[in-house]
Amino acid sequence: MIDLVAAAIAGFCVLAVAGGLLGRAAAGHFLVYGGCLLLCLGTLGAGLAAMMAPPTTLLLPLGIPWIGVHLRLDALSGFFLFLVGLGSAGASLFAIGYAAHDEQPQRVLPFYPLFLAGMHLVLLADDAFAFQFAWELMSLASWALVLAQHRDPANAQAGFVYLVMAVFSGLAMLLSFALMAGGQGSFAFDAMRASHPAPILAAVAFGLALVGAGSKAGLVPLHVWLPLAHPAAPSHVSALMSGVMTKVALYGFIRVVFDLLGGVPWWAATIVLVLGGVTAVVGVLQAMLERDLKRLLAYSTVENIGIVFVGLGLAMAFRANGFVAGAALAFTAALFHALNHTLFKSLLFFGAGAVLTVTGTRDIDQLGGLIKRMPVTSAAVLAGCLAISALPPMNGFASEWLTFQAVLLRPELPQWGLKLAIPADGALLALAAALAAACFVRMFGIAFLGRPRSIEAAIAHEVDRWSLGAMVGFGTLALLAGLFPGVVIDLLRPVSKAVLGASMPVQMGDPWMTTIPVEASRSSYNAALLALFVALSGGLAAVMVKRLGSRGLRRAPAWDCGFPDPSPMTQYTGGSFAQPVQRVYEGLGYQVREHVDMPPPGATRAARFSTTRSDLVWDWVYRPLGDWVGRIAGALNVLQFLTIRRYLGFVFVALIVLLLALALWQ
Amino acid sequence: MRGLAFDIAHMLAGFLVLASFLMLYQARLFALLHVLALHALVLALSVAWQAHIQGAPHLYITAAIALGFKAMLIPWALRRIVFQLGVHREIEAVGGIGLTMLAGMGLVALSLEVMLPVTAQADPVAREDIALALSVVLIGLLMMVTRRNAVSQVVGFLSLENGIILAATGARGMPLVVEISVAFSVLIAFIVIGIFLFRIRERFDSVDVGALDQFRGGRQ
Amino acid sequence: MRDFTIQLLQMTLVLALAPLLTGLVRKVKARFQRRLGPPLIQPYRDLRRLIGKDVVMAEQASWLFRVAPYAIFGCIWVAAALVPTFATGLMFSWSGDLIVIAGLLGTARFIQALAGMDIGTSFGGIGASREVMIASLAEPAMIMIIFSVALIAGSTQLSVVADHMLTAHVGLRVSLALALVALLIVALAENARIPADNPATHLELTMVHEAMVLEYSGRHLAMIELGAAVKLLLYMSMIACIFFPLGLAGGLSGARVSVAALLLGAATYAVKLVIGGALLGTFEMSIAKMRVFRLPNFVGGALMLSLLGVLLLFVSRGM
Known about the structure:
Strand order of the largest sheet of chain A: 1-2
Distance between the termini of chain A: 46 Å
Shape of chain A: globular
Number of strands of chain C: 1
Oligomer: heterotrimer
Number of strands of chain A: 5
Order of helices and strands of chain C: HHEHHHHHHHHH
Number of helices of chain C: 11
Number of domains of chain C: 1
Strand content of chain C: under 5%
Largest interface: A-C, 91 and 92 residues
Radius of gyration of chain A: 26 Å
Number of helices of chain A: 24
Structural class of chain A: mainly alpha
Structural class of chain C: mainly alpha
Radius of gyration of chain C: 19 Å
Helix content of chain C: 55-70%
Helix content of chain A: 55-70%
């Protein structure tokens, strides 16, 4: 199985070369994306199979001499392989149609397969070198993709911020591995699993892994690059970065914390819980205020990563207290949500890409009325919006429901930090879910409903079949995963068994396929049955009403309380829709200044109202940090103008200091 | 039966915390004074219930003091003061009401976390009562800190004092003398603050204590 | 078969009683205003009249606008069917717990807000925007209330909760008291009742729910009105079943419930509804509508109280 995946990775590399050579050819994108689609379908299947099978390993004679590249495919990497394969297959399918509009395909085609190769390789890596190499490959390839449209200065800045954060994340992961490898320098994961580092070292390694993987995934306050970089890339790459790459980062976190470190103390769980809850709320609030469609989705990714981290934090808390059954529930909920997020976030980015292609804008205040011009896209995006807002019967609700069940599972944990963090996280999750619903009512309502606010939106048309296929496919999957959560939970059993040594009870054994996380008298949820009931009662009502009452329907101008309302500009915009929420939650991660410019009585110019929003994380953490780095760099600028003798002197002194340190160490 | 006695005692203490939160929530002076009366009423009930279950008749006197002085006299007097001074009736809170309430929640959690382990050996009725009483005290302090208006600071102080009485009655064997002296000290404090209110009002035409900072000539 | 009958009975009962409750509240309010008020059955007449009328739909309305009334009604009705009214242990009660009920109501609200924005008028936008603002506080408050109840009863299943409240020695709990206060606030806000919204207004800038459904007419409007009535009944049944479960028939054990117990349950349920409706009417008459930007404090207060209840339960099981 593992050699197939390794072959697929090699295949991606070949496609990358082909993409470089055929970049300008008309059929180039067809070949590259089609090839990626096929390979991803293969890795998806391999991942699925690997979840059921025992771990397999492979040693490749590549890389550093005498060490080689260790690869391993176990249940955990199998699940993430499935997830990455699924997300990438969808993105490739979408791209076959979408990339036809690409102006500079040679800037995307070589890097896209490399990006996929990097993500796949991270999942297989079984030693720190291979992991680090793959991690950086993933970062650099996606950086190149972010800069695909580098003429836009905003994109250039996004690329810079992304590169800094990626390097930072890679460095943190590297240091974490170095600490776990210990003095012997055994960089194979097997050796790390076997060794038990001192508590203080393990704590630092945990912190570094949290920072490294968290910054890649978008954990607040390390999320700032995400809303810049994800939207800058072409939409299918945005979908990959938001829907898939963040999951690879989660994989890195899980691999280190749950597997290599083998359990962490309760305070670590508290940190993860607090960060996760804060991330969820801060992310969704920013999304609520955003008017750029893709940035909105990127902020919403931050929110969902927060939800997954809450699940993982719960699993860590329960595990630290020896309550593995609860840990299995929370862990399953987290992975389930990760899968769901891949489905609906990719779908929504596809939708945003489709809108961008036909209207040329990502500003929701320029859109409107697309539901009539793009019916299929709108329906798929509506399904995605329902799912991401955690509403039954879609999949987002199923995983949040499981997370809530995990929160309620064991209130009598002894540690005070957990006692306060777990209920607070429950509230934060609920708040994030409600705000997500608000955010996506706004997104869908402004961009797809109402009347068109610009010519481009008024003459929009449906996109090509490939793109529609990807959107409808993912929408269907999101619905199916929501209707039959038991299937997914059962699929995740071997993963949680392998990682935690326990798993949730079998779900599909129940004759009605009801999801029962613990026991029937505690909680149960049958999405399919409820959806059937809703459809039946709604349909019944429609039939009865039409039979008993009137069937007539007349079209007339909108009533609107009798106000003549000719202009679409009188509709609510994204800004006006968000204003109540923005005022209520001001201070939670953002600050808004409202400017009113009212002309004096008698003047004929228009009154103006505008708002400026600032991200408090950016203002309080990154700007001071950037200034500080800038100052130091300015001070060190002198070093650029030294003689060669002095440079040699520096090298010499550094060498002597290192040797001295070594001498003192021993 | 014993369980029900516990429950009612907890319930009344919980209501006291609830009333404290209602105070934090109020944005109008008169409504705040009504809640203060309610706060004292709940305290009186709670103390009376303690008198009943502990079989300590002297606590009934404390309850009567709470009812008479704090639930009726002081709110009435404060109301008169507000009328006479013509104080601005909207209360400004430092940081929004939501944030203050959130801070209040944190204080409740903190006091529970601090008190419950410490009093693990104590009488189970007293245990949770004392934890709740501490949170009433802390919320009272929070109110004094976050309100700009002097009248609402007085209210915060009175609610703080209610918390102290609740804690005292929960612990058995508190002599009456102490309670009466506490009650009188509050009365005196109240008079002092009342005079103080009139003084700032005379000088600055406002009871916003921010005016005092200006007078002090500190940074502002 | 018997279980099935009870379930079906319960579903039709909910539907049949809902307009009556709305009528009752209106009547109580009218009497307070020294008016005679419309008869109790006026809501039924309104519904019949609306169903019989043709629909006048805005030119720019999309398919979503036409489907929405039925979808909203379906979601609310199914949610209401999951709440025990006169008997617990309903046949399909296991298909969803309290969180699912909250979720179904969330779906209904989501679709309603979208339908409000579909026409592209400013009123629809106002309504939808305010609705989601209120919901963004009320929904987490609801989840926290559910948490309090679930931590005490050890289950999120409403039937189990009701049985637990009936049989076990729950006693008086501080956290339950907090949850009750919070639930009352949430119920007022979610049902667009007076301090949050005025169900009787039109053409007023403070309206929320009515602004969203402004463009609806005929049978569509009938479905939405009926849905709103069922939602009010749902909340009242939920409060009754969690906090005042007295007289509820049945148990989870699967034992057959006697007809007498069912009748008793139905009688007490009717009494609870009358009391609840009267209290709601009285409350609405004694308080003024709040400014929109005061609402976050009101509903946020519910969130704080319910969170406080959950915190108390996490820290000390005795609360």
